[in-house]
Design goal:
Four copies of one chain form a homotetramer.
Chain A: H1 12-15, H2 18-22, H3 26-46, H4 52-64, H5 69-79, H6 83-91, H7 108-145, E1 149-154, E2 157-163, H8 164-188, H9 208-218, H10 233-259, E3 268-269, H11 285-306, H12 316-346, E4 347-349, H13 354-357
Helix pairs in contact in A: 3-4, 3-7, 3-9, 5-6, 7-8, 7-12, 8-10, 10-11, 10-12, 11-12
């Protein structure tokens, strides 16, 4: 099924990013959720919250349960979350006496949010690598053509000559800033969620802080030192960053489109897009797509901010809204970096206009 | 792959609508595009624009070509549209002398937009049926409990008693209006696109009007009497309607949530959502989801309006942006109707508060 | 104070529309609210709901009360609506025995919504006249230059020659459609609100329908035949229309900008915008502004759809949200029509490119 | 004129923030622009870029020119920016030989952006003080009632008891984070813009860096070390922060609304909003307004991100779009802090539910 253009069989190399999309597959999600339960059992046994027998039984059940996706789907439609049914499936392989030890002290939001954190960490690495590559591509372009003179344009009119380097800097500077800020932004979504039914870890008594700290370490995540069940600013910061990323790259795309207008012809692209009616045309397809992705994320960021109005100790409405928006922002952001690199690789020449501009 | 929660293996019965999602599958899309080419060849042969030999050869090629999805994906990343490669695959089964007769006079946007129209028509029927059912459900509820007194509330405070019928009317009246307006709105997206490379059907000469009219009839679509390559208001009207639909249903969802607050307890739901930490809870999951879907479409509608700025005779950026937004709006709109029906079916009682309200 | 660029002392001729902005002044708002109370008293006296003595006393109080804006502001911050304090000010000139006859059966939302309806009616007339003028301007342009050949462009690349008329039709066709649909859309906001505290006109007993019908007639508005306290689709339809209007005009603006690129030079504008650093430049300022206004309304329309989730019998949150958004959409929509007319009047020539395109 | 509810004569104490709104008045804007020109002349004379005679003459002209707002309005409609006409008015008091020394090397965007920076700095101080106060208010509330038990609620259903402190922390923690991050965010908009016609300070030769550094110091702004004509991420970061602020406070507002439902009655407010039809009601008006402001800014943030697609060396369309959006975001953000403080001051009691929750 292909409601989303971002993971659509024939559109996904135009609009998506396969590697990053994988992190939003059910397989990766369930693997991460099972990893959460395993780590929780391990740490709770260490802290004497559950018995080591319980831990061992849980490990075995997590290794051997039969995943029933249809069952998950049916139950999720009823429960609003996948977790109760997933645990029920695991418990089928777990002796009754250990049932209460599984997922002890945790709530559905803990495991779902943590699964997201684990996968955003991995997606972030891919995006960071791509972005570093894009910045290098731009530096290479600058070394190649940076001292060419082009015509600076303001308000869509010819203004004064500028070195191409100045235009290229206007593309790469925001990206360098975004890359350097990503260290902070990534951390905001690399955070364990473990807070229990109402955010107070009420079942863990005095072990609460210790279990949470060790669980975070076990999962290679940061310890939130409390609940972020309703404080969704980490995810919103990530969404802001993604939209600033695709927005900044959208400027690059728009510029290349404008430079490739036939009469302007400041850039020579190879391998432009073909047309079914006019085979001679060379359309600056990837430039256009960069603008589409920028506008798509600029729209989506609004929904993430709407979801900040998160009532009481857990808002089903706002939380569910995030699920519909954030994954597509991550993939669109990643795609815009990848498409930009492809676009730059198509640039054959940006001719020196010194003679023309000195007219 | 499951970037979109709307067609996600375990979320889709919570947030999606399987039947409607099918219309956005690649299979349905390609089937519709092939139908376009077939109808075009048929009509153009009738009008003497292409030969009957060409038509027969085209029919045979369309029946026998080997669909290569990987090829489509690779080419779409380059061309920005699937059509040139799809035609190339068809032409492999077509004698060279007939190549120019295939897709004669048409452009990629003609076939892609028309494929969308064909599928939106079918999705509309499903949505209309569901919406009619939802309105009937509300009428049934009104017959059952409509004369019960409940407490009218304004600005979240108890105001004065009202008959439940008044509240139910505030749910069903917007839906009745939307259903009655759908006749017009549906027509706006049941329109053939056939305008050629730059919107003037320049290759068809004096046959242009006739071919277009007959092609529309052949495909059971309306004749646009011109190009809508850049006039995207039909799609925007459809998007508006979808967001008004999920928004109006979001009000219903929010009301049911408020009525199900434990202390208020104006509605008794069965089969509410379970919780992993607190199995006793009955969460009004579908009510919450209705609010999420409403906010999701209210966000998306903005992107469709942004895409109205559609430069020149075809804007790659704006057109591509539609592809990322409209399908998910259709599925979210359809899902909100379906989820509302499920929610209403969970209502066991809305007790008469006459004694309480007359305190 | 000038938080809004649309009624800013030096930006308003660039971004606003003075005549339409006037309808959102406090003066016009209060005049409309007083007209509502007068009409209500008149009709209720006719129907025997209040005495003719009460009516006469109310008329006199409405003529003679001392408007205290500071008092309104202080009270509105407390009450969330201006009405209780406005009525208190009127009651200072009204004998105590008639106090209960003033505003009898009405609620704050009735008078505030109706005041908006009255003013949107008047704004609609101005917009309709301007839009009719814009369409005529385009027809005149078409008569002047329509048979010139220009270069059709798709995906930002030269495609095939088209007659300018085709491009101009792509500007005027959506506007003609919008004008023709405006008859329906205008009616949706030309509707009386009169429904009482919880939407049931509970205080008017059997006279309710009659009073509402006569009140509508008295105010030259349509009778809603019920409450639209929570059914805000009329306002949303108006917002959709405004954003489709500025969006369609944004396309025109974007096209003119592209045509005025120096190397392209398909359009000759006089009186372009000056620059502080480069006095020789002629910036296509109004074209750019048309794009800004389009994107502004495309953003705002999202907020109006968010406000559809309107809980219970009156949602303070959603209703207040409309107040922040709709006025600026109306003025931005009106401004885009006005600016487009000004832009067209700057067009000196769109040269015939026949020789160039036949190269 | 009152298109904007945020500076509307009777709505502004409900929805606006007078002190912060002042920074967007024409007076403050022009004062800041004149300060820019004065500082520029001072620094350029120091650096020998203009003569000291020119500087003195410019100082005198800036002190004595006759501001003609009507002239500014008319010219801005033509030029798209106020600067050329403002300079023309100043030049009326300046000997012809010094005309070229005024505004030397600068462009309209330099002065307009810098004026905005200067005023955002001042607005930031007010917001920071208010936000600090709000956090203190919450701490005081926590000291007063923090150990009371209330009922934790998830997905709108009673879950488990929590100390009120936990709920209050969920309100104040995001605000504390936002306050601590504001140090960085404020700096991003406390930046001089001085880059010349196309962003390269081409007229200043070797003095460019030095003049820019000194000009920044003179105006108490940071030196951008280059142009941010097209890199608008500083403003977007500020917009993100404002929307996260009003969004986080919207959660507080929504919670108070839910706690004040009659049957729930977890909070006792004094001085709630009155109703024209039901004088006995106490509406949680400020709670509702907090939700409206949150949704308003969540919508607006989308437009700021759309404006990131900023083509070439200056985009009239994107830049102008910022003018319509950012001021209202600043005022709405500031208003949400102020309104939250007022709301908290209305809280008379949040009773201990220990007995009830232990049922």
């Amino acid at each position: 099924m292909t409601v989303s253009a971002l993971d659509h069989p024939y559109l996904k190399d135009l609009l998506g990013h396969d590697e990053v999309a994988t992190f939003f597959s059910v397989e990766e999600d369930i693997t991460a959720m099972i990893a959460f339960e395993r780590a929780l059992a391990k740490v709770e046994a260490e802290e004497g919250v559950i018995s080591t027998d319980a831990r061992d039984a849980i490990f075995q059940a997590l290794d051997n349960y039969s995943l029933d996706i249809t069952g998950l789907r049916v139950a999720t439609a009823r429960d609003g979350v996948v977790v109760p049914e997933l645990l029920r499936q695991v418990k089928e392989k777990l002796a009754l006496k250990f049932h209460s030890a599984l997922h002890f002290g945790a709530t559905s939001q803990d495991i779902i949010d943590t699964s997201l954190s684990l996968r955003l960490c991995r997606a972030s690495k891919v995006i960071e690598t791509d972005l570093t590559g894009l910045i290098e591509d731009l530096e290479q372009l600058s070394r190649k053509f940076g001292d060419h003179q082009i015509i600076g344009r303001t308000r869509m009119q010819r203004a004064l000559p500028i070195p191409l380097k100045h235009r290229l800097d206007s593309w790469s500077n925001p990206l360098k800033e975004l890359l350097s800020q990503f260290t902070v932004v990534r951390k905001k979504v690399s955070v364990l969620q473990f807070a229990g039914a109402v955010g107070t870890l009420e079942n863990l008594g005095e072990s609460a802080e210790q279990v949470r700290a060790k669980l975070a370490a076990e999962l290679n995540l940061l310890d939130s030192k409390g609940s972020w069940h309703t404080n969704r600013r980490g995810l919103v910061s990530f969404a802001n960053w993604l939209s600033e990323l695709s927005g900044s790259i959208g400027k690059l795309g728009q510029d290349v489109i404008q430079m490739s207008i036939n009469e302007v012809h400041e850039v020579y692209l190879n391998g432009g897009g073909g047309s079914s009616a006019m085979p001679h045309k060379q359309n600056p397809v990837r430039g256009e797509v960069l603008v589409s992705l920028a506008r798509f994320n600029a729209m989506n960021v609004s929904g993430m901010h709407q979801a900040l109005v998160h009532e009481n100790e857990r808002s089903g409405s706002s939380w569910t809204l995030e699920w519909m928006i954030l994954p597509q922002m991550v993939v669109a952001g990643a795609a815009s970096v990848r498409r930009a690199r492809e676009l730059l690789s198509q640039i054959e020449d940006i001719p020196d206009m010194t003679e023309i501009v000195s007219e």
